[in-house]
Specification:
Elements (H helix, E strand, L loop, with lengths): L3 E7 L5 H9 L6 E8 L16 E5 L4 H11 L4 E4 L5 E2 L3 H12 L3 E9 L5 E3 L9 H10 L9 E3 L2 H5 L10 H10 L5 E11 L5 H4 L1 H27 L2
Parallel strand pairs: 1-2, 1-4, 2-3, 6-9
Antiparallel strand pairs: 4-8, 5-9, 6-7, 6-8
Helix pairs in contact: 4-8, 6-8
Length: 237
């Protein structure tokens, strides 16, 4: 049975217990849960009831990318997922996604997802974006990130090829990583909402929009030549 490592970066998030509850309700049994406390000063007491069932690591505040990299260094699973501490998994997220990946021999996949509000109520259903051909995926990803990181599952060995998250990118480390991955691997999509993505006023995308815009430009510039080369290769097929 394949083992799945779920990495949960945590920084002052009041919803951490809901994220953990959603992981412990998974129908797939062979998982390890790694919580990285990235220098939190609030809400860490909500983790206490779960300490005997998780791998818990405390570190100084270094941002989500550094927390993910710390989790990767401790992960022993064949497959890796990440869950933000304000989001939640569907109960069959791991089971269904892993089954799909094993069936298709996928190295990287992401899923459809719902939006929820502060109270956990669904506000928008099934808003995931997918393009049916590799060429379309490459072209659209060169314009911007449409992959929700918490819906992703990938083989751990992928990181051996593409490296770890760029810790100099506080908010767009995921976009940079997905570009590195899609330049070398096929992208698989599961059109089933397996993630609940929470919108609230304290989320990073709300508070740091200006910085994120600058980072996106930086990531696009860094990948411009390599992604265009892959697009040209795909067009020549």
């Amino acid at each position: 049975m394949k083992k799945v490592s779920i990495i949960i970066p945590f920084y002052n998030c009041a919803y951490i217990n809901q994220a953990l509850d959603s992981v412990f309700k998974q129908t797939y049994p062979h998982i390890e849960i790694i919580v990285i406390n990235d220098g939190s000063t609030e809400h860490y007491e909500k983790i206490t009831p779960y300490l005997d069932r998780i791998i818990y690591i405390e570190k100084g505040n270094g941002g989500t990318a550094s927390a993910l990299n710390m989790g990767l260094s401790r992960a022993t699973g064949d497959y890796i997922c990440w869950l933000s501490s304000d989001d939640m998994y569907s109960t069959n997220k791991i089971e269904n996604q892993l089954a799909y990946m094993l069936k298709t021999n996928a190295s990287f996949s992401y899923t459809n997802y719902h939006l929820i509000n502060k109270a956990g109520a669904i506000t928008s259903r099934g808003i995931g974006i997918y393009y049916p051909t590799r060429l379309q995926i490459l072209k659209e990803m060169s314009k911007g990130n449409f992959i929700n990181g918490c819906s992703v599952m990938l083989k751990k060995e992928v990181f051996d090829r593409v490296g770890i998250f760029d810790e100099t990118l506080p908010y767009t480390h995921d976009y940079d990583m997905w570009l590195r991955i899609i330049e070398q691997f096929s992208v698989y999509y599961i059109d089933e909402p397996l993630l609940y993505y929470r919108i609230h006023e304290k989320m990073g995308t709300m508070q740091h929009a200006r910085t994120i815009k600058k980072e996106v430009k930086r990531v696009k510039a860094a990948h411009k030549d390599s992604i265009q080369q892959v697009i040209a290769q795909e067009q020549a097929r």
